[in-house]
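TICKET: design request
STATUS: open
ATTACHED STRUCTURE:
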């Protein structure tokens, strides 16, 4: 049978139970009793002729068949979340943002202000090069900001291009005598210098290094410590360079003694995207819009 032709109330129970794993949480979200959830689950099992869940302690663990049904329902229910389930009044406000650490100098001061103004618990999680689709659809995260479009697209999510920027090579006084007469660096020249690697993901997953590898080149990483905050003192102390997005340097407060050179090839241009659910509550929509406004001046 076509799952989307079933009773919407039964489908809401199925969707929430696969998401929460709890009859009580499902009942609370729908504003019904746990016995009503049990009756709906029994009806679903009868109609579909499938167990759907197995109990482990206090949790309802979905079968593979139930998870396959959830996959079909998620794009619909996540985009109509407010209309279908409503939003609990006076519920704690939580907002989880996934973003590259290079954006922290731009975003964190604003997020600190907004967390107070909207009385919300705002969490900033580091971006990883993988699909965040399921977390977005299920609501465990609210927004992803990333360089490059790595997500599996679905109509339940809104995708926005915020702009583009160029990678720059940052260096300090120890490397200045070598680079002072240059106006830019070719992509291939990055292999000629020792680098400080400050990204939170492995070098093998870094797009710049992937592009270099395709050209038969490799950067020499002399110091690695996944921390942008330590970049200024590191580059003032040693003849190393670090490759970062231009917006990070523009927003950086500690620029003393630091200089930049643009990386000239088109391979050094990155596009900034954001992803978030279509059906969001109003305060989250306003926060997302504010984050976009904060970022756009840095990404033309």
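STATUS: resolved
RESOLUTION: sequence designed for all positions
ATTACHED SEQUENCE:
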């Amino acid at each position: 049978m076509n799952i989307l032709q079933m009773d919407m109330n039964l489908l809401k129970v199925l969707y929430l139970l696969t998401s929460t794993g709890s009859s009580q949480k499902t009942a609370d979200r729908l504003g019904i009793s746990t016995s009503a959830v049990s009756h709906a689950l029994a009806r679903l099992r009868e109609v579909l002729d499938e167990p759907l869940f197995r109990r482990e302690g206090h949790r309802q663990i979905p079968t593979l068949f139930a998870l396959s049904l959830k996959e079909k329902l998620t794009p619909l229910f996540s985009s109509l979340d407010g209309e279908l389930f409503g939003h609990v009044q006076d519920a704690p406000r939580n907002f989880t943002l996934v973003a590259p650490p290079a954006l922290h100098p731009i975003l964190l001061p604003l997020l600190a202000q907004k967390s107070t103004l909207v009385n919300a618990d705002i969490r900033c999680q580091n971006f990883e090069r993988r699909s965040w689709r399921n977390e977005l659809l299920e609501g465990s995260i609210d927004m992803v900001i990333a360089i490059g479009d790595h997500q599996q697209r679905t109509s339940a999510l809104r995708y926005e291009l915020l702009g583009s920027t160029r990678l720059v090579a940052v260096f300090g006084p120890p490397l200045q005598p070598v680079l002072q007469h240059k106006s830019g660096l070719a992509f291939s020249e990055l292999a000629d210098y020792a680098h400080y690697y400050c990204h939170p993901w492995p070098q093998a997953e870094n797009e710049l290094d992937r592009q270099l590898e395709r050209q038969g080149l490799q950067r020499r990483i002399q110091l690695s410590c996944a921390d942008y905050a330590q970049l200024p003192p590191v580059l003032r102390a040693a003849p190393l360079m670090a490759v970062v997005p231009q917006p990070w340097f523009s927003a950086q407060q500690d620029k003393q003694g630091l200089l930049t050179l643009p990386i000239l090839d088109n391979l050094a241009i990155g596009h900034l995207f954001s992803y978030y659910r279509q059906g969001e509550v109003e305060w989250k929509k306003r926060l997302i819009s504010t984050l976009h406004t904060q970022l756009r001046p840095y990404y033309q």
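CLOSING REMARK: Residues 195 and 240 are 5 Å apart (CA to CA). The chain has twelve helices and eleven strands.
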